[in-house]
Amino acid sequence: MNLYFMRHGIATPRGDPGATADQDRPLTDKGAKRVRKAAKGMRRLGLSFDLLLSSPLVRARQTAEIVAGSLHHEAPVEELASLAPESTIERLIEDLAHYQDRSSLLLFGHEPSLSIAVGHLIATKGGRGVNLDFKKGGLCRVEIEAPIRPNSGKLHWMLTPKQLRLLGERPAKH
User: Fold this and answer.
1) Euclidean distance between CA atoms 86 and 96, whole angstroms
2) Are the C-beta atoms of residues 25 and 11 closer than 8 Å to each other?
3) pLDDT (average), residues 68-81
4) Least confident among 45-54, 57-66, 107-116, 163-172
5) What is the DSSP letter of 50?
6) Res 173: pLDDT
């Protein structure tokens, strides 16, 4: 199974008058524009997914919807509470076990939760963790064998948002 992890785009700052609670902070116009460009890069890479799972927070959900539209993903984005910032890696792994029959999932979430999750999945057998830094709009691919458990994944690649945007801007080869 391939798990793709993507951090939400740039959101309005904490304390912004338009969003009284953290979970209600939407993407900024700049954030939405950058996510659209990153999604073009994902399309250029030929990525497709069986399912898109998003944190219930507005900014992650908006990011997921933009990517789904750009990739012409037919199925609706599903919310997964264990992708919310206050959840735990144990709960996320437990929830992902329900999707083990899928070959490719794209998960939308937050920092530091995403870095912790990926680090946990790809940690060495000796238990040494991996430090990752997901930029807003960044994407990585982890290959994992069922059952999903810590130390069972392999990081194939990690792209910054700028790399994804540049991929989307490259002219197509003929």
Assistant:
1) 17
2) yes
3) 94
4) 163-172
5) S
6) 62
pTM: 0.93
Taking only Cα atoms into account, the Rg of the chain, rounded to an integer number of angstroms, comes to 16
**Parallel, antiparallel, or unpaired: how do β-strands 104-109 and 2-7 relate?**
parallel
Structure tokens at 65: 């919807």
Distances (CA, A) of 155 to 13, 122, 142, 172: 31, 7, 5, 27
pLDDT level of residue 5 (50, 70, 90 thresholds): very high
Residues 107 and 4 sit within 8 Å (Cβ to Cβ): yes
**Residue 164 burial class via C-beta count within 10 angstroms: exposed 0-12, middle 13-18, buried 19 and up:** buried
**End-to-end Cα, the chain, rounded Å:** 32
Q: Using an 8 Å Cβ cutoff, are 45 and 13 in contact?
A: no
Question: What would the pLDDT profile of 84-116 be if each residue is shown by its tens digit?
Answer: 999 999 999 999 999 999 999 999 999 999 999
Would the pLDDT of 63 be above 70?
yes
Minimal CA–CA distance to 105: which of 84, 78, 86? 78
Strand order in the sheet with 78-79: 78-79, 51-54, 104-109, 2-7, 139-144, 153-159
